[in-house]
Design a protein that fits this description.
By secondary structure, the protein is mainly alpha-helical. The chain has nine helices and no strands.
């Protein structure tokens, strides 16, 4: 009986290998030949699944985003049913705090370096950015009961600030892992969340006062 090949699973496996190759050797050195060799396939087999290196990179982006979404929505240590999950625990899943996540984040940062020169990658990056906003907004709404009570402009500012901070922390930790062990990353994220929450509460209170004074 012929062996049944799960083509979707094989594409994911190749995409994961591409993540590791890009993380270890850089974007320019991640050739189709090197990816095929690291995956244990011939270049002909690789070409059966992907037309180009760019297609592999895009598949890797989609796969990483899907894996991050799964971790954000299903944390390793879920809170009791009666209590909301802790936001810090959820968002830590997006940081390079272990070897597995460092590979993902190193791949992201290598990808960012290619975006400005490629129109297709710009479109993909815009889509990825929107998906990150959607994911993080869901986490904020799930964990902060005050979230729906804040004005839309305040929520938008908090969300943009959070995504910008996580992107910056990710890039710093990938470039200087010795300066950014997991503990330091989590401490900085915790501080940023406290600052954003305090700012949003103050902004929301000021908006309510202005509205009350205008009545």
């Amino acid at each position: 009986m012929p062996k049944i090949v799960d083509h979707a699973q094989r594409r994911d496996e190749i995409a994961l290998v591409a993540c590791r190759v890009v993380a270890e050797h850089g974007f320019d050195q991640a050739s189709m030949v090197r990816i095929a060799r690291e995956a244990g396939y011939t270049t002909g087999m690789l070409a059966h699944y992907f037309d180009s290196k760019q297609d592999i990179i895009i598949a890797a982006l989609r796969l990483i985003l899907r894996r991050i979404e799964e971790r954000l929505l299903r944390p390793a240590h879920p809170a009791p049913a009666a209590a909301p999950p802790e936001l810090l625990t959820l968002l830590t899943e997006a940081l390079p705090v272990d070897a597995h996540r460092r590979i993902e984040c190193a791949f992201w940062t290598a990808f960012w370096g290619q975006v400005s020169a490629d129109r297709r990658l710009k479109r993909i990056n815009a889509w990825v950015h929107r998906e990150y906003l959607r994911l993080f907004e869901r986490c904020l709404a799930q964990c902060w009961p005050e979230w729906p009570k804040w004005p839309a402009a305040t929520r938008a500012q908090v969300l943009r600030s959070l995504v910008t901070f996580i992107n910056g922390l990710t890039a710093s930790a990938v470039a200087n892992i010795g300066d950014w062990p997991a503990r330091a990353q989590i401490e900085q994220l915790s501080l940023q969340l406290r600052l954003l929450h305090a700012w949003a509460e103050g902004a929301a209170g000021a908006t309510r006062e202005r509205h009350a004074a205008g009545r």
